[in-house]
Amino acid sequence: MAEAADFQGTSASPARRWLRRTGALLAGAPLLAGLLQLPAAAPADAAGQEAPQAASGAGSVSVAVDSLSPSAPTEGDTVTVAGTVTNNGKQAVNDAHVDLRVGPALDTRSGIDTLAKKSDDVQGPLGEAVGGKYTEKFPKLTPGVAEPFNISVPADELDLGADGVYQLAVALSGGTTAQPYDRVLGVQRTFLPWQPEEAGTKTKTTFLWPLVSSAHMAAETGSNEQQTPVFRDDELAKEISPGGRLDQMVSLAKELDVTWVIDPDLLASVDAMTKSYQVRGADGTSTAGTHQAVANRWLAELQQAVTGKEVVALPYGDPDLASVAHNGTNVTGTLSHLKEATDVIDNTIPTILHVKPSTDFAWPVNGAVDPSIMKVATSAGADKVIARSDSLQDDLSYTPSAARPIGGGTTAVVADSRMSTAFQGDLTKASASTLAEQRFLAQSLALGLQTGKQRSVVVAPQRMPTVHQAQAMADALKALRLGNWSESQDLAAAAKAKPDPSANTKVPSASAYPSSLRKQELPRAAFEQIARTQNKLDKFKVVLTRQSRVVTPFGRAMNREMSVSWRGQGIAGVGYRVGIESYLDGLIDGVKLIQKSETKLSGRSATIPVTVQNNLVQGVEHLKLRLTSKNPTRLKIGGAAYDEQPVTVNGGHSQSVKFTTSANANGRAEVVAQLYTEDGQKYGGPVTFDVKVTEVTATVMLVIGGGVLLLVLAGFRMYTQRKRAAARETAEDDAAGEDDNAEGQVGAAQNPEAPGERLEEESQAGPGAEAPEQRSDPAPDTAAENADPSGPGERVDR
């Protein structure tokens, strides 16, 4: 991208400084003419020259600029530069001294980039040394020892000219035993923005402040009425605890003019921590969470911080729009999940933060766009897409305003790539942080000085800044607020600003999408697994009496499966998706048929019970149980090949469903029991068992009848014999004996078949008889029972 605009004039410089610098230039003209006559190859220590020279092989001393204050000085300020110098060589440095050197103004934004890449190059141009008393000396620098320095110099002594960005180099010079002459041994360049007076036209700057984290909640919830949430780990508690990343993001931005960009999933997760919650350990067991106070404090501080500020809501879980566009649109249901992720915003941010967020913006990763990403980004209802200038490039000599129409009622809000990437990388060292801040300010001022027209610039940093990156961002924004060339602006206002007619409005092709970003995308298999989980959920929810207990947590979990945070974490992402699907499979399997072993059927008709067990907390309904005979010519169910009955089972109970059967022939018949939803979809696996038909024949009935007749005849014979014996008794027996004899005859007459009945019972229970028949009508609604198969030889009565 071309950046060739020069800075605009010297109108802001006072006349006093202009006269002084003009006089210094005229006075130095003769000296300059004399220097031009010196031999080009004069040695560094010849002719009494005192200015140190950069020698070949220099750079043995590292210079770190840990602080520069103020970051953007004005007239009357004193610039203080502090840091350390460290001798990394093997020899001590003698007569070392640190001084400040001011280089010429940098004409372009690309020139700032070039200088930043060579910030410690001792052989590059260094500029003129301030010198004099603004130098810190070290008699000796011992190898491996870091020495601090602190130099303060009035801004007027830096001899700065017109408004612009100046190179400020901190150089250490000295000599060693091997090379005793004075030369530059280490340098660190940084940037000094110079705008001492208010700019006539200020740049309107929008800085996005992202509040985003990775996925922390699982789909699993407790079985209690409150559905206690389960967290995958305790990392979120660390992030919101004092000193944590998210704690610092909130604390630092309280006094800043920023646009908050928030993932609703983060708020919902922290809000869940304010109540009872569980944390899953590495061994798979869960323990009670203990950070309710931390969660309440963080949310209270966030509510205070966003009051009166612009809040932009990302779709729930911060879905990866590029992955959806490139790998998910051909998978059924993917776009529906994206739409749901936007719709659920109203149930999170307004409820928790008591502010109404904007849902008009979509933010692809790194602002990289192509036509398919633009289409997906707007499919969920957003009509503004936050892109970046290294994706939607302009072939202009200046930076145009951020907003530009790209057709179809969609506005691309193009963030400045140089300012947006200024705080990336390792900023744990103070020197790296200071350089990042000064580079950000330099780019901002250089942009503002390109033209005399007011423009809007948007800064979209990385999604999840570290603590040190966030600190650098906050410090730079504070310095920018104190500067004279910029003013803050909301993102909505930036999107509505008048677009530059010369700005590029053509979205780059798919081939221009960075390959480094494409390699990190969620694969198609991820979206196929999400679709498979959704399909199972759709079949499962129709049988539930309280669908929201399952649909809501799984819906949010599937939103998290599409999150940007899984980029670069392929294995972890797969594990998260597998865990969600496996947990759903376990719930589905909680409603099932109890296995049955072979059932014996004596007679031509009987009832067969099949038990449905519900191990869920809630009841199930809208289920049908179908019992099918594989051999209907031998055994019919309800007079046909199959019969089905509705099933309703309370939570934690089992229900026995009875089917009427009829047998036409002896032998085994295979029977299959299968649950179905009301729309005819199979639910769970089938249960198959055999029914053994043992019908009683006519011959057997004749044998039994003959036996009964013999028993009756034997009883009659015994009766007549006893009567004859009584008649032969002597007549002298007294009346009492006759009465006793009469009572015995009467008792025999009242139960003449008693002996026969006992024989019948003995005959039926004799050796080789079948096992006793079982009743087929258990209680209609019982507590959950053992799901093991029933014992062999189960018989069913008619």
Automatic annotation (TrEMBL):
<feature type="transmembrane region" description="Helical">
    <location>
        <begin position="696"/>
        <end position="716"/>
    </location>
</feature>
<dbReference type="Pfam" id="PF19516">
    <property type="entry name" value="DUF6049"/>
</dbReference>
<dbReference type="InterPro" id="IPR013783">
    <property type="entry name" value="Ig-like_fold"/>
</dbReference>
<feature type="region of interest" description="Disordered">
    <location>
        <begin position="492"/>
        <end position="518"/>
    </location>
</feature>
<feature type="compositionally biased region" description="Polar residues">
    <location>
        <begin position="502"/>
        <end position="514"/>
    </location>
</feature>
<keyword id="KW-0472">Membrane</keyword>
<dbReference type="InterPro" id="IPR046112">
    <property type="entry name" value="DUF6049"/>
</dbReference>
<keyword id="KW-1133">Transmembrane helix</keyword>
<feature type="compositionally biased region" description="Acidic residues">
    <location>
        <begin position="731"/>
        <end position="742"/>
    </location>
</feature>
<protein>
    <submittedName>
        <fullName>DUF6049 family protein</fullName>
    </submittedName>
</protein>
<keyword id="KW-0812">Transmembrane</keyword>
<feature type="region of interest" description="Disordered">
    <location>
        <begin position="729"/>
        <end position="798"/>
    </location>
</feature>
